[in-house]
Design brief:
Distance between the termini: 106 Å
Helix content: 25-40%
Order of helices and strands: HEEEEHH
Shape: rod-shaped
Number of strands: 4
Oligomer: single chain
Radius of gyration: 28 Å
Number of helices: 3
Structural class: alpha+beta
């Protein structure tokens, strides 16, 4: 009578293609799990926020901030995410509520006509 091995001890011989496929699936699963743990750019309501008030008395604006691989980004009132380049409050203030005051020419001596 031949001896039988228990099923849990049987060796399964896999081809190289099957081994590569299993490794690929395992890697994909690991990356998917990682993105669930570290959600870059989450639109979660509980995300960090920043409030910027105008330097020119035009009020205040509050926006969400998210952390990405490239640094922090702030969500502008129109829905766009813009890199903070350091200070998210300053970026939000300068590029939204104080945009026209921040970007006006130094010598705005009028004219406005054609040359």
């Amino acid at each position: 009578m031949p001896l039988l091995r228990p099923p849990q001890l049987e060796c399964v011989v896999m081809s190289e293609a099957n081994q590569r496929r299993r490794k690929s699936i395992a890697l994909s699963a690991a990356l998917a799990a990682l993105t669930q743990v570290m959600p870059f750019g989450s639109n979660d309501v509980s995300a960090e926020t920043v409030t910027a008030c105008s330097r020119y008395g035009k009020g205040c604006v509050t926006a969400s901030v998210r952390r990405t691989r490239n640094g922090a980004e702030v969500r502008f009132p129109g829905g766009s995410w813009i890199g903070c380049s350091g200070d998210c409050r300053e970026k939000l203030r300068d590029e939204s509520i104080d945009f026209w005051d921040t970007h006006k020419p130094e010598n705005s001596g009028g004219g406005g006509g054609r040359n």
